[in-house]
Amino acid sequence: MTTADRAHVVDLASTRLRQLNQALHQLRPDTNETLWRIANPRGRHSVAVGIDAPIAIEIDGHVGYYCAGMNKHATVVVNGNAGVGVAENIMSGTVHVKGDASQSAGATGCGGRLIIDGNASARCGISMKGVDILVKGGVGHMSAFMAQAGTLVVLGDAGESLGDSIYEARLYVRGKVASLGADCIEKPMTDHHKAKLARKLAAGGMTGVDLGRFRRYGSARRLYHFHVDNVY
Amino acid sequence: MCGIVGLFLKDPKLEPELGSLMAGMLGVLCDRGPDSAGFAVFGPGAAGTTKLTVRGPKGTDFGAVARRLSDALGIQIPAIGRDTHGVLSLPAAREAEARAALTRIAPEIAVVGAGRRMELYKEVGRPDLVATRFGLERMQGTHGIGHTRMATESAVTTDGAHPFTTGLDQCLVHNGSLSNHNAVRRELLREGLEFATDNDSEVAAGYLTARMHKGASLKQALTDALTDLDGFYTFVVGTESGFGVLRDPIACKPAVMAETDRYVAFGSEYRALVDLPDIGNARIWEPEPATVYFWERPN
Known about the structure:
The structure holds 2 protein chains of 2 kinds. By secondary structure, chain A is an alpha/beta fold. Chain A has a single domain, classed as Pectate Lyase C-like (3 Solenoid). Helix content of chain A is 11%, strand content 23%. Chain A is elongated. Chain B is of the alpha+beta class. Chain B has 2 domains: 222 residues, Aminohydrolase, N-terminal nucleophile (Ntn) domain (Glutamine Phosphoribosylpyrophosphate, subunit 1, domain 1), CATH 3.60.20.10; 68 residues, Alpha-Beta Plaits. Chain B is built from 7 helices and 16 strands. In chain B, the strands form 3 sheets. Chain B has a 7-stranded antiparallel beta sheet, covered by helices on one side. A 5-stranded antiparallel beta sheet of chain B has the order 9-10-11-12-16. In chain B, strands 4-5-3-6 form a 4-stranded antiparallel beta sheet, covered by helices on one side. Chain B is globular, with a radius of gyration of 18 Å. The interface between A and B is medium-sized, with 19 and 14 residues.
């Protein structure tokens, strides 16, 4: 029996989105309906938001805003692009976008993993609080803005003001960084960090990547406390 | 919020469908801007002829307006009426004279746009209904832009709806809000420009018009806007030969582009593009912030 045979198929051309999301919300942790396949998302917003069950969902097509937001336990795969705020406030589980993601991907994510095979645009990982984000392409400006915890790994380039006002997240970028934001600095890449990065890449399905080409960025911790020189 | 659509056809076989494709795109973006809507369509045009798009009160007989204008100018001026808007076709050389005559003989009529190919329609109401009132789905052309408005800066009026014209065969739609529009408006008023509304987008249109009067190209004027206009904006400008896109450096307002061998399309959201032909195989991307883009057909 193949995956497709066992999957619960929902066609959004004929099923209301609200109906789908309600069905997903009603799933219990021990549900037997663990495989879902969603057809014709047609860029709709809020597809598969708020799941709290260990299920696997594949969405065939491009989705709109906030896809898989607040995800807990589930694995959500988007066979297409994602709009603004994919996996916003993800708590656990995995969200995997096979195409590109728009702005604010993984915003405020507290845990779990977000994998983007293409590019992510501006503000990727804004205010991230523990999520691991892996972007195989590049990220736009102001990515990891006010990032508090978690890891952002970027295989491509990063736009302007990377890690502006960052607290404690770890940023690894293989490509060029257009500029660093306030209080974000480059830090030494030790064997310890290479081992950590290798684990993050492996968790995102990537092995054999040359770790030596990555650079590490993080907080200089100069914005933590009030400083009288910053008074205007 | 507000929603923007743009469609630039590369394949002439799609030209009869321009209006119906645009109507579908605008309809999807009703919930981004339910207050009012407007669009500019670049259809057939004849050298030496200017199409004046004019607006009148509900029930205006644009045939009668054209006859009065014909008498005043001593020439035959054909007119097409569509709901509250009408299109008067006249010799390009007589445009200024026609505008002056209209002010005199039909003060209730406002000119909303002019050009060899551009026709511009806008009204208060739900975007899909506005599109139906003007018969957008039956319009033909090479390209067009449209807007659905959720008013934030000024009143919901027909004058406040987009597009705003910026010159012959040129217009602008805007998603966002400008924070320095009052200061810019004051400067433009000093330079002699006139404004019909308190709308920030009208100021952006006036700014581009003023820059171009001073000799800047549209591309240069848009580039200058990055320095002089403060606030959030995604602009789409329609020109006789195509359309241009500019997002502010922060790029808060959404923008998605799709391109195939047959067309280039702009939408505030991907949802607006899903019914375009062969969208499944289109290249989809977001325009970069602070970058001026143009898609134009060769003259």
